[in-house]
Design goal:
The protein is α+β, with helices and mostly antiparallel strands. The protein is built from 9 helices and 4 strands. A 4-stranded mixed sheet has the order 2-1-3-4, sandwiched between helices. The protein is globular, with a radius of gyration of 18 Å.
Length: 235
């Protein structure tokens, strides 16, 4: 099967969590909106009449299926590409972890857009500084501390044991994104999450991930994505 991934063509965003799984699996896929006429095709998919239209990117077309929401897409892809347990209980647990990752990603976005997504960052600088301070004082320790404890308890390099899962790839992206957006804050905080840092390093050397990171397929972090670097927020 050749998958079709629909996501914005100039940012990593939430689509990157899907890209990492497809790349690690060596799956055949098209990043549709990055091709000629792709964005128009993506919007047509969203606006189409039908019983199950996707709400917003990212969404994945797999044969006749059109699957929306990042965690839901990964819940579908993981078992099919060896990145999720075979047992139902393990798959549900992994999905739960990915939903927690999704919650954290939303909080990352709110550091630079705490009032509204329709406003520019420049329109909400003051609230962004307050939100970022709370984010690093309370939310980052809560979320990353949780995943750090799970990794320590697993007794392995990966979150659920010896084999990598799609959640491990997502945690790699979390560390990479925070390093880009908050290099000073993250450098100081990393001493508290040695297992997560080690996980990031382990994922980075996986052959397909390593090749992807060095390729043009990996869109660079920028100020239009979820992880954005603003000097005023990285104090």
């Amino acid at each position: 099967m050749r998958y079709e991934l629909y996501y914005w063509p100039t940012i990593q965003g939430r689509g990157e969590y899907v890209r990492l799984v497809l790349e690690d699996a060596g799956a055949d896929y098209a990043d549709v909106a990055r091709g000629k006429g792709g964005t128009a095709a993506m919007m047509k998919m969203i606006e189409r009449n039908g019983p199950t239209p996707p709400f917003a990117p990212p969404f994945l077309k797999a044969g006749r299926l059109v699957i929306g929401q990042t965690a839901n897409i990964l819940h579908y892809l993981g078992p099919r590409h060896g990145l999720a347990p075979k047992a139902e209980a393990g798959r549900i647990w992994l999905h739960q972890l990915q939903l927690t990752v999704s919650d954290f990603v939303a909080e990352v976005h709110d550091t630079h857009h705490p009032i509204g997504v329709s406003l520019y960052y420049e329109d909400q600088k003051g609230p962004a500084r307050k939100r970022t301070a709370e984010f690093w004082n309370e939310r980052v320790p809560k979320y990353l501390g949780y995943f750090e404890r799970l990794l320590a308890a697993s007794g392995s390099a990966y979150i659920t044991g010896r084999k990598a899962t799609y959640v491990d790839l997502s945690l790699f992206q979390i560390v990479e994104g925070l390093r880009y957006a908050f290099p000073k804050r993250m450098q100081a905080f990393e001493r508290n999450i040695p297992s997560l840092v080690a996980l990031r390093d382990q994922v980075a050397i996986r052959p397909n991930i390593k090749a992807y990171l060095a390729s043009e397929r990996r869109i660079a972090f920028n100020k239009d994505g979820i992880f954005r670097h603003y000097k005023a927020l990285d104090l």
